[in-house]
Amino acid sequence: MSVFDLLDAELDGVGRVLDDVTDRQWHAPTRCTGWDVGALVAHMGIGIGRVVEFAAITPTPTAEHAPSALSTTTVESRRERRKRIAVGWSPASIAG
Known about the structure:
By secondary structure, the protein is mainly alpha-helical. It has one domain. It contains 5 helices and no strands. 0% of the residues are buried.
């Protein structure tokens, strides 16, 4: 059984569970602070969509990067970008 077969089976199971979720349950809180069931399921859907997109990418040879590619400036820039992304993906931001 391939990874994709396993993923399909898991998604079928999740779909069956979600089919039985009531309107009231969609708005119930989860263990993820600030996220209700609907927001968490939407987040999972986005993640699964990315898995499918990445799986369709044709692999390329590994690039060799110069040590300068990991300069302090680059690392700090990436940290700041991650912080902005985290804020943009917060439940409040997603809800609009």
